[in-house]
Amino acid sequence: LEAETFQPIPMEEFFSPPATQYVLPILGEVPPGEPPDPKKCSPREYLEFYLFPVVLPGLAALLQEAEKEKCFEGKRTKFIPSDFLTEWLYNNNPKKKDESFTELFSIPFVKDWLKDHPRPPIPLSLLLSEEEASTLIQSFWRGYRVRCDSEVQELRQWQRKLRDERNITEVVKKFWAKQEAK
């Protein structure tokens, strides 16, 4: 009894799928044989004949684009996979072979969706390259260090005092009142 219950399980049988399972179909390529009626076929046949030939190449293109956008290198990225896949599937629809490329925000159903569900803007940290971000941070830091200088502080205090003494806001209001009166 013990010899039968403790025999090693051949794990290769569980984790080694047939090699054909990993082959992605070419866009629009359907499995061999007569395509079944989409309204009467089984879910598996529908997936194999109608859905997978379009979606799997789209997912492969999505992975290639994500790699190009360096999505696998960091936690945050400006790349939005659902946007890419939506645009790719719309433009590679086998029923619309003769139409020109359409940008994501020009697709009719995307326009309608965004009217009711506007997107928040993409954070600046995702839009800037590392060089642009470092330049921005360095310029802010240099400005801060300059403003901390005692001579610059003295100049800024003098300017503030001058503004308060001359009441610059009143001077500006009078100036524009004269201009409008002309």
From TrEMBL:
The taxonomic lineage of its organism, from the top, reads:
Eukaryota, Metazoa, Chordata, Craniata, Vertebrata
Recorded hits in Pfam families, A to Z, give: IQ
Q: Which CDD domains match?
A: DD_IQCK, IQCD
Organism, as annotated: Leiothrix lutea (Red-billed leiothrix)
Q: Which InterPro entries does the UniProt entry name for this protein?
A: IQ_motif_EF-hand-BS, IQCK
What the entry lists under PANTHER family is as follows: IQ DOMAIN-CONTAINING PROTEIN K
- Top-rank lineage group of the source organism: Eukaryota
Signal peptide stretch: none
The protein, known as: IQCK protein
Q: Which gene encodes it?
A: Iqck
